[in-house]
Amino acid sequence: MKKFMNSADDFLKESLQGFGAAHQDIVNCHYDPNFITRATPTKEGKVALISGGGSGHEPMHGGLVGYGMLDAACPGFVFSSPTPDQMLAAAEKVDSGAGVLFIVKNYSGDVMNFQMAAEMMQGPNESVLTNDDVAVEDSSFTTGRRGVAATVVVEKIVGSLAEHGGSLQECKALGDKVNKNSGSMGVAFSSCTVPAAGKPNFDIGDDEMEFGVGIHGEPGRRRDKMKSAQEITNELLEAINEDLKPETNEEILLFVNGMGGTPLTELYLIYDNAKNMLDKKNIKISRSLVGNYCTSLEMQGASITLTKLDEELLKHWDSSVHTAAMRWGV
Amino acid sequence: MSVNFLIHRAKEIQAVIDANASEIEKLDQEIGDGDHIFNVQRGIKLVIELEAVIKDLPMSKALNQIAMKVLSGIGGSSGALFGTLFMTMAKGNDIDNGVDYKKAIEIFADGVEAVKQRGKADVGEKTMMDVLIPVSNCLKKGVEDNKDVKEILQEAIEVAEKGMFSTKDLLATKGRASFLGERAKGHIDPGARSSQLMIKTVCESVLNS
Q1: What is the number of CB-based contacts under 8 A between chain A and chain B?
Q2: Is residue A324 part of a domain?
Q3: What pLDDT, in 10s, does the model give residues A204-224?
Q4: For chain B, which residues make up each domain, given as ranges?
Q5: Which range, of A147-151, B119-123, B131-135, averages the lowest pLDDT?
Q6: ipTM of the predicted structure?
């Protein structure tokens, strides 16, 4: 294992300290329990948005704290859910009285810990559960689809509504709508190593890829031999389209997300190849996002997310945002 | 059952889990992400370290402290599930005025029911519930049938072992192993193994006392 680290025990703390110091105009980092808030207090009457999850997916979620997006983020240990004491401390700090909306990715540990926090919390709160990963079959007999990169889109759009005075119920409803309007699928070329474990999460051959991989390197649909970028892109988009069923001429957001170890050069190449296919199907790409937003440590790989956009979603996507990882309109 | 009883059983469980650590780790590497044994060991250590803080507390407060400690200290699914178990046991009716074996079984069964709700997992899904639910049912039934406590505990040990082995041929439908589909078959669930060892340790300790 080669990593920039001094000790596995201090890995997360030192990374959080660096993040807090580098972006002190935007965020405040709090420790024991760990949580990140905006540098400025929540506006009176504004719904507070809190997300969180295991670390190792940066910039999600700490990098999405700031004007127009999250009010707080709770980072767990690498690939391990945060605990209710973190959510409760964050909520106490950022709740202005208008209630707290938790944004949670559908992984059992995250769901259970956020649920317990919600039960222990005194004030009004709601939760949005993201489950955009079309690689996993959604069924009441399984854990269900995983929450992956569309969580970033949910946080952006709901963040804007909250900033513009949306109520707790309205924010919850919009979050559910964005999630329902989104589909994602990813592919991994390499594994990733959790610092405390010291060895790769899974083995994968030089000529292989895990198709439909989760954001911790969990198995996807199948193990495949490597293919061309256009073939991989087509297969990812076909799986998403089959689930999302965008109409001809429907406007969508095309979000090409890097898993951490794939260069932007390749992410833009995927964007080009995705555009080729969507153009052929007369699906209109009206907004774009390309970059590393929902990562899996140093994993080589990428995911594609499509979100169907209507006027309401477009307006909130375009509105100003000022976080460490996303910044426009300010 | 006293707070002292809980601390002593935790120490015995620690010894048994440590002795079986490499087996549990291997099971988890086959179908999980390999961190289960570290979570369990960390959780037990945290509980034992609470000794000075909880030894003179009433049962409800001691159980609550244990719950909060494992919840925040283990994290992930294990923390939430074991936290739920102890938090529910802490809410047991009238437990600060003494806990006999019937009361102990009652609050344990309530705890298991709450864990079942929290994890939304039932028997047959290749999780620790394949051990905990049958054990809880067996203990309750034993009390209802007015069986001797030694007989009840002996049965619970056997039921736990049977439940643990039953996970081998199951498909996982909950947790991380569920993403493996057919690939998870043929492996015993690590959570079922660690909870079976805990049940066995506590029951045997009472039987031998």
Answers
A1: 71
A2: no
A3: 999 999 999 989 887 778 899
A4: 3-207
A5: B119-123
A6: 0.84
Number of domains composing chain A: 2
Per-residue model confidence (pLDDT) at position A141 = 54
Q: Does the pLDDT value for residue A272 go beyond 70? A: yes
Residue A140 has pLDDT above 70, yes or no: no
| Digit-coded pLDDT (tens) for A287-319 | 999 999 999 999 999 999 999 999 999 999 999
Is A13 a member of any domain?
Answer: no
Query: How far from A161 is each of A46, A274, B26, CA to CA, in Å?
Result: 10, 29, 48
B75 vs A82: CB contact, 8 Å cut-off? yes
Domain for residue A50, yes or no?
A: yes
Task: Concatenate the DSSP letters of all residues of B120-146 into one string.
Answer: T--TTSSSTHHHHHHHHHHHHHHHHTT
Q: A147 and A219: one domain?
A: no
pLDDT in tens, B77-107: 889 999 999 999 999 999 999 999 999 999 9
Check residue B186 and give its pLDDT.
Answer: 87
Q: For chain B, say whether A42 makes contact (Cβ under 8 Å).
A: no
Chain B contact for A103 (CB, 8 A cutoff): no
Query: B68 to chain A: nearest residue by CA?
Result: A85
Residue A42, domain extent: 20-180
Of A180, A204, A239, the residue at which a domain comes to its end is A180
Range B3-207 has CATH code 1.25.40.340: yes
Of A152, A180, A208, which closes a domain? A180
Sign of CA dihedral A216, A217, A222, A224: positive
**Mean pLDDT computed over B102-124:** 96
In the predicted structure, residue B172 carries a pLDDT above the cut 80? yes
Distance of CA A277 to the CA centre of its chain: 25
The residues of B whose Cβ lies within 8 A of any Cβ of A are: 33-35, 38, 68, 71-72, 75-77, 79-81, 83-84, 118-119, 173-176, 178-180, 183
Residues A97 and A229 in one domain: no
- Nearest residue of A to residue B78 by CA position? A109
Say if residue A191 is in the same domain as residue A170. no
Comparing CA positions, the residue from A295, A323, A260 lying closest to residue A72 is A323
From A185, A187, A189, A214, select the one nearest A203 (Cα to Cα): A189
Q: Quote the distance between the C-alpha of residue A255 and its chain's center.
A: 11
Tell me, yes or no, whether A55 and A142 share the same domain: yes
Q: Same domain, yes or no, for A85 and A100?
A: yes
Measured between alpha carbons, how far is residue B86 from residues A123, B83, B90 in Å?
A: 24, 5, 6
What is the mean predicted confidence (pLDDT) over B125-151? 96
Clarify whether residues A311 and A186 are in a common domain: yes
Active site positions of A, annotated: 57, 216
Q: Does A142 reach chain B within 8 Å, measured CB to CB?
A: yes
CATH code of residue A57:
3.40.50.10440
CA distance B177 to A219: 9
Distance between CA atoms of residues A102 and A28, nearest Å: 19
